[in-house]
Amino acid sequence: MSSAYIARATDIAARALGGEMMIMSAKDSTLFTLNPVATVIWQSADGKTPLATIVKEKICAEFDVDPAEATRDAEGFVRDLAGHGILIVSEEPINTAKPVQGETR
Amino acid sequence: MGDLGTVAVQEVTIEIGGAPIAVRSESPEFRRMLEGRYGGFLSPDSQPVFEFDVELMPPGRITSQEDISVRLEQGRWLIERGDLRAEWDQNAKRGRIVQSANPYSIDVALRIFHSLMLARKGGLLVHAASAVRNGKAFLFAGVSGAGKTTISRLAPPDALLLTDEISYVRREGQHFVAHGTPFAGELARVGENVQAPLAALYLLHQGQENSIEPLGHSEAVRRLMENVLFFANDPELVSKVFETVCELVRQVPVYRLTFVPDERVWELIR
Predict the structure, then answer these.
(1) Does B246 reach chain A within 8 Å, measured CB to CB?
(2) What is the pTM of this model?
(3) Could you give the CA distance from residue B188 to residue B185 in angstroms, rounded to a whole number?
(4) Domain B124-268 belongs to what architecture?
């Protein structure tokens, strides 16, 4: 999966609040709160950057984590959010990523 | 001159949250019922922002549907329940309600209408009691049995009860303001028709002692979302509601209020 491209779905609402990213599926109102690592993956899910590059250049660069472990965790996170329709996963670049909303404090 | 077959229109204007809505029927009895139920919220001199024509049917003549359905079809909102059918065109600012001559159906139609109108404007209907004290509004949210009626009943004389069941929160400028509503719960007492800036939101729990504990943003958003009254399966409006809840949590402190059911709890609410 790490060679896949990921994009934020368009039918979601997301808001960074008090340092936490909250995402809601507009379809079923399910709410997710992302931890800092998951937030970086979410913010980087532009449909143009492969997950492997996000893990290498963002996660491993910003957090003190083992690359193999970071890849496993990232793939699990992406599978989970994709299962809820929050992230789109494709073997090809994706053009429909929802823009990241600015944080409100 | 003979009978021309004309029927006098019976109209009342009910203003909740600063939005006057005209309700028309052909029944003087229905008008009198509305005047009795919504007494403090009648606003005969206001220019209505919306008009509903009510067609009264004998009980049991509408549908057998028990669950409520709220949906948008070709630009028209539709509400269907066993005792009620309502439809309106938001742009035309007119709608039609078919119901029997009971107060509960019109109450449901008005609640849903206001919930949809508020959602678009960055406001909320919340399953919460609310009161004004010292010029500040406080919301007490919780599911049935959490203590909304109890805390309303315990309110001291200097607290004005806005509602014991359905709180009306509007965005006014950059801030949130709570308005009184006639939507009563078990207390069966219509709220005061006043408004005040929202100072705090309490999530109610009855316990062995009185205590207040601040909630983090994400838990506050989750808990408030659970208590928002919103019926429509409309992704765009659901997203708006989420945005409003996030903004409210950013601006207004949210606490878990554990309380013993006696009047001392109000010593914490100031």
Answers:
(1) yes
(2) 0.87
(3) 6
(4) Alpha-Beta Complex (3.90)
Mutation target among B174, B215, B217 for the A interface, most CBs of A within 10 A: B217
Q: Measured at the alpha carbon of residue B178, what is the angle toward residues B24 and B219, in degrees to the nearest 5?
A: 120
Domains belonging to chain A, first-starting first, are 5-90 (3.90.930)
Q: Give dist(CA B120, CA B95) in Å, integer.
A: 18
Q: What is the C-alpha to C-alpha distance for residues B177 and B209, in angstroms, rounded to an integer?
A: 30
Give the per-residue pLDDT at A105. 38
Task: Retrieve residue A28's tokens.
Answer: 């079923």
Taking CB atoms and an 8 Å cutoff, what residues of chain A touch B249?
17
The rounded Cα B37 to chain-centroid distance in angstroms is 14
The residues spanned by each domain of chain B are 10-121, 124-268
Q: What is the mean pLDDT of chain B?
A: 91
Distant-in-sequence, close-in-space partners of B128: CB < 8 Å, separation ≥ 6 = B139, B140, B141, B142, B148, B163, B166, B167, B201, B227
- In degrees rounded to 5, what are phi and psi of residue B205? -145, 130
Q: Look at B86 and B75; give whichever has higher pLDDT.
A: B86
Q: What is the pLDDT of residue B153?
A: 94
| Contact between A24 and A33 (Cβ < 8 Å) | no
Q: What is the pLDDT of residue A103?
A: 45
